[in-house]
Design brief:
Structural class: alpha/beta
Number of strands: 9
Shape: globular
Helix content: 40-55%
Largest sheet: 9 strands, mixed
CATH architecture of the largest domain: 3-Layer(aba) Sandwich
Distance between the termini: 72 Å
Order of helices and strands: HHHHHHHHEHHEHEEHEHHEEEHEHH
CATH superfamily of the largest domain: Vaccinia Virus protein VP39
CATH topology of the largest domain: Rossmann fold
Radius of gyration: 28 Å
Length: about 475
């Protein structure tokens, strides 16, 4: 049975439980159970070290109460989960010498809940999850299928879609930023961890040759995510990619401390992120930022934070909406600062629908390096494939489409898709970065007087048809009455 079939059967079981209401709760319920099973499977590997001691009390480990398909069920299982398991995991003792895995488990379960109300159904779900052995490398790789299934479900679970960046976009941004071993890599709005996993595998494939290299890489991948469900999915995803203690903070990167309090030791070499956009931060968050950059627009605040957290020579690739490119006021001051502090060398303009189905906002990929000012910005307009009019959930953007940008990247020339804009031109536009492709002929709307005449003619035609229809209806009614 495939992973996606297993997940579908689990969701069908959950639909029978009155306590689970909607896709978002089903995904959250599934997420904590899968996390706990994966953690337990991973512990079999950790236990090869004779000094390893599990941070989870023995009676609470998955193997103690869930692994036996004929184990506790019904009210006994429901009572155990609600009154023993969750309270204990939410309050795991932490101390200076405690295993960092204890803090990881406590963070994951801090805002997790058991929504299910029937112990017999919980047992059925557990038994389905037990069919997957995450201690086997083969089944670990199958988690990619499970993960994709969860992400597809997230897209239809209300605003949960904000956690997701199409895999092709993530891969392209990582490829062009090219993080290397020893780089500290951060996603300050990491969602389910797509950028971090992609960067991890990129560096692992290129540079990791020894156990020391691998340990250095695991310590170099860091993320911040404020919402519990994507945080849990991110941690789970990284564990399955052999990061035993993922360094993923449950926090809001914008509110954790004032910008002025960050020092050189907080800075990183690479930032890859798709910050939330179109939303507003809660009151007071903007006071963490200098007065001339204060705004409630989330994407703008993240851009200011990124400028602070990059080391000199550090590289960033971020997703931003069109509004951040052409907006004025605070947005203008932020863009001016960006161009002064960094070399904004490339903006890739994505076609509409890349983030379908949960937003139609036009988006852009910004690539910049901190430490020297921008002298010119190269733009590349990503073309829509000729065989389709728009992207969709079933036909998303594909990594092969970015071969155009990759072939152009190192030997830049003006083409039908690429153009270069000097800094002086951007300054003359009051730092607007919303610059259209000069090689695309503007749509011609025609002479206004001629268009107005055509409009009046159409109005007259409509009036004539209306009068004709009225006369025919009157005649038909008179005929019926006369008959």
């Amino acid at each position: 049975m495939s992973i996606s079939t297993t997940i579908k059967s689990i969701q069908d079981i959950m639909r029978q439980d009155a306590g689970v209401d909607g896709d978002a709760q089903r995904i959250s319920q599934l997420a904590w159970m899968i996390f706990f099973k994966i953690f337990d499977d991973s512990e079999f590997e950790y236990e090869l070290d004779p000094d390893y001691v599990s941070p989870v009390p023995e009676r609470l480990r998955w193997r103690a109460w869930a692994a036996d398909d004929e184990g506790i069920t019904g009210d006994a299982l429901l009572n155990f989960v609600n009154n023993e398991l969750f309270p204990a995991l939410k309050e795991l003792a932490l101390g200076p010498e405690s295993d960092p895995r204890a803090a990881l488990i406590r963070d994951v379960f801090a805002d997790s809940y058991n929504y299910m109300k029937f112990g017999t159904l919980i047992r059925q779900v557990i038994n389905k999850i037990n069919e997957i052995d995450f201690s086997r490398q083969e089944d670990r790789h199958l988690f990619n299928d499970l993960y994709e299934q969860i992400l597809r479900d997230l897209q239809s679970a209300g605003n949960a879609g904000e956690y997701y960046t199409p895999r092709a976009v993530t891969q392209f941004m990582v490829d062009m930023t090219d993080p290397r071993l020893g780089d500290k890599i951060l996603d300050p709005a990491c969602g389910t961890g797509g950028f971090l996993v992609c960067a991890l595998e990129h560096v692992r494939r290129r540079d990791v040759r020894t156990l020391h290299d691998e340990l250095l890489l695991r310590q170099s991948i860091r993320g911040i995510e404020k919402k519990p469900l994507p945080h849990m999915l991110c941690v789970t995803n990284l564990i399955l990619h052999d990061v035993d203690v993922p360094l993923i903070d449950r926090d809001n990167a914008l509110s954790r401390r004032p910008l002025r309090d960050y020092g050189p030791h907080d800075c990183v070499d690479v930032i890859l992120t798709n910050p939330p956009f179109g939303g507003m931060e809660e009151p007071g968050v903007e006071t963490n930022f200098p007065q001339n950059f204060q705004t409630k627009e989330t994407a703008d605040l993240f851009l200011v934070l990124i400028l602070k957290l990059l080391k000199p020579g550090g590289k960033a690739a971020i997703v931003l909406p069109d509004g951040s490119l052409f907006g004025e006021g605070v947005k203008t001051r932020i863009k001016e600062r960006l161009l002064q502090a960094c070399n904004l060398h490339t903006i890739v303009r994505l076609p509409n629908g890349v983030f379908a189905p949960y937003t139609g906002i036009n988006t852009n990929l910004l690539f910049f390096t901190k430490g020297e000012p921008t002298r010119a910005v190269w733009y590349f307009e990503h073309p829509m494939p000729g065989d389709r009019k728009q992207y969709s959930k079933t036909r998303p953007i594909e990594i092969g489409e970015f071969d155009l940008e990759k072939a152009w990247w190192d030997d830049r020339q003006e083409t039908e898709y690429a153009w270069k804009v000097p800094l002086a031109d951007i300054q003359a536009r009051n730092y607007s970065l919303d610059i259209k492709n000069p090689h695309t002929e503007e749509e011609r709307y025609g002479d206004p007087d001629k268009l107005l005449a055509v409009y009046h003619k159409h109005l007259a035609d409509v009036a004539g048809l209306r009068a004709q229809l009225k006369a025919e209806l009157s005649a038909a009614i008179e005929s019926v009455l006369a008959g």
